Amino acid sequence: MNREGIIQELKFKAVRSSGAGGQHVNKVSSKVELTFDLENSMALTDLEKNRLLKKLSSKLSKENILLMQCEETRSQHKNKELVIKKFLETLEANLVVPKRRRKTKPTRSAIEKRLKSKKKAALKKLNRGKPRLD
């Protein structure tokens, strides 16, 4: 993943933040929206694009554009930094290839221990019943 190349492909839009805040919020566009065109990205390989398309499918638009936004602070610049950081963390987390799971057998002692505990539990339950008169 080429961080600089990806950052250059990002598009930003400043919009008015929603919610309470008085007169200042109504005048200033401090909320930052980040858009990233996943399919037409030159910074990602085809393998990376496919992996991201699968993993981020719920967060993508119909045109495979990822939209993220941040309105945490009053500063547009700080919100821009935060949304870029959040975007890069999302990409890195979703590009990680999970390790393949190796099938393992339980050890002989573990098998014996399990069977022993099962026998013990079965005997305990057997002893709870009414005594037989033979």
TrEMBL record:
Keywords annotated in UniProt: Hydrolase
PROSITE patterns attached to this UniProt entry: RF_PROK_I
Keyword Hydrolase listed: yes
Region feature Disordered, mapped onto this chain: 99-134
Molecular function terms, GO-annotated: peptidyl-tRNA hydrolase activity; ribosome binding; translation release factor activity
Major enzyme class: hydrolase
A GO BP entry: rescue of stalled ribosome
Prokaryotic-type class I peptide chain release factors domain span: 16-32
Keyword Hydrolase tagged: yes
InterPro entries: Pep_chain_release_fac_I, Pep_chain_release_fac_I_sf
Classification via Pfam families: RF-1
Segments of skewed composition (Basic residues): 115-134
EC number: 3.1.1.29
Family named by the database record: Belongs to the prokaryotic/mitochondrial release factor family.
Protein name listed in UniProt: Peptidyl-tRNA hydrolase ArfB
